[in-house]
Amino acid sequence: MQSLEVIQSYNYKPLENKNAILLIDKILKNLDETGFDTVTLIDDIKALRTFALEEQIPLVVKVLRLSYEHIEANNSFYIPIPNDDPIEEEVAVETTDATPVESFKYLISLIRNLNNKSNIADLKEYRDLLNGY
User: Three-class SS of residue 95?
Assistant: First the structure.
């Protein structure tokens, strides 16, 4: 896990596009109602990624791309939610037990508030877990 100083050194701006926020809300609602409708979900993730590209938020762009590639390949989201307080001595990232829908909802909800340093840290852990899957 990266140190807090590294996280603080890059100022992440929040998603300011109202359409992006509405799309996040739509994704979360659809996950609650239908679970993984992969075709719709992947299209929505790609659309959200476009907003992140426009706003130049590279971490979000990368995590969203890795996420839809993972969902395309697996028809689900098998990346667990990172633990809140991983022990720094441990090499592996600790994770919690959650359903694929819960984990993906958590990932998407992190994108809503990029001013929160722990959200950035969790997004980086998701990125690393997706890269290693």
Answer: strand
DSSP symbols for 19-45 = HHHHHHHHHHHHHHHHS--HHHHHHHH
User: Do the Cβ atoms of 77 and 130 come closer than 8 Å?
Assistant: no
Tokens 């509405």, located at residue:
22
pLDDT tens per residue across span 90-105: 545 555 568 999 999 9
A 10 A CB-CB count for 133 gives 12
Distance CA 118, CA 76 (A): 25
Q: In 3D, which of 58, 76, 73 has the Cα closest to residue 124?
A: 58
pLDDT tens readout for residues 19-61: 999 999 999 999 999 988 899 999 999 999 999 999 999 999 9
